[in-house]
Amino acid sequence: MNKLGPISVGGSNPVRIMGIINTSPESFFKESVITNSTKLSQKIKEMEDEGANFVDVGGMSTAPYLNTLISEKIEIERV
Length: 79
Prior knowledge:
This protein is of the alpha+beta class. The protein has one domain. The chain has two helices and four strands. Strands 1-2 form a two-stranded antiparallel ribbon. A two-stranded parallel ribbon has the order 3-4.
């Protein structure tokens, strides 16, 4: 058993790795944005091959300094 701050990890509390993919063109970091479905699938496979246990695909920017609210329909289309 190991500690990450106050959290015990290892044994029955294994560490999990999460990949994060950004599909929001409003992102301030344009190099991180994937908007092509083929490239998105390839990136997910790459993350899986590199050890990600699960992948979070975000379709809406949460930048606090921008008005980035989009409709659910647009977000679903992005992811």
